[in-house]
Amino acid sequence: MNKILLIIQREYLSRVKKKSFIVMTILGPVLMAALALSPVMIANYSEDTVSKILIIDQTPDIFTSVLPGSESVVFINSKLSLDSAKAAFDPDLHYGILFLPSDMMKNPGGAMLFTEKQANLSVTTYIESILKKQIENDKLKSAGIDQKTLSSIETQVDLKTLSLKGEENSAELATVVGFICGFLIYMFIFLYGVQVMRGVIEEKSNRIVEIIISSVKPFQLMMGKIVGIALVGLTQFLLWIVLTLTLTTIAGKVLVDSGKDATVIAQQMSKDKLDPNGIQGPGANNEVKQDVISKVLGQMSGINFPLIITCFIVYFLGGYLLYSALFAAIGAAVDNETETQQFMLPVTIPLILAFVVAQSIIQNPDSQLGFWFSIIPFTSPVVMMVRIAFGVPGWELALSISLLILGFIGATWLAGKIYRTGILLYGKKITYKELSRWLFYKG
What we know:
The protein is mainly α. Helices cover 64% and strands 6% of the residues.
């Protein structure tokens, strides 16, 4: 046991002292914080430009007045013909020419926007929404229905979902939490499992392993390496969480203090979609912001975060140990990384399949597909983490964790057999038939 602890210490210290570990530990939170705050930064530093658009209106009665603009889109009626407007077009004065044909009511797709460069999405979206609204208003008028009557009929249903204990919950929030947890498990198992395999190949190719094996058993070496790298992964993961939260909090305060609070940002990002008639919805304001924050906080209280965090650690360790044992066996069986391809596929397929299936299980977490994939040890670390946010019966969780532990023990036993034989074998092309023989070697 002391020898395993010494190997764990060696693996842990040799990796956390590497420049690549230190750089990634610092760079990871910076990139994640930048990604999280990118909408705020984009809104802060984006330029306020006004797009002036000439309108050539040939409709008889529909657009009798200038179309309502926004803070960034301004419409100007023109009496010129389309050809004359094109000939006199000055890109320094106008963004484009909007042509409305005479049969707009029968052919709404006949409207055309001419620009010197590729039209940007915010402008085209705004124009489409405003034309749609104008045509709908005219049709309502023709049918004898005024806008007030229609507005009084329009109803928005906001279904509130509660647990039997009265706690508010949200399928959308549970989906986001579940998918993030499943993705992190998938990513970490791959990332650190491959590190185990590369470490074994490196020691084997340098013949360092021959010296180590003279002092410890191959199984002790394999377990020490797997556990040591797992601790490196947990250390890096915890540092990422702490540093990301710290950076996000500090950067968020700096951005808010610069006078661009979340409400202003929301208004700035959505202003192209707003107009005085509320064509694209009510927009962002303080009351809406407070309502959204209160709603999200209320929904978060319905998610059992202590259970999710505990299960995340259990499934990360269980899944990592299971797959790392197999990756270590692959590393021991080959002489270089190029030869790993033929053995990597059968090991990685269940993990990739789990991630693919998880995306459909989000739609129906209680399906038979979700149950079986969250029970099978090779897929349960990813799929069960997706399901947990929606609520999983205790017996299913206990069964899944028990089978994962048994799966890890079985995989470690098989991997140990291959590792013991393969770690000192050089210069031989290994096949699946050869590997199956190693499983039954004695001594």
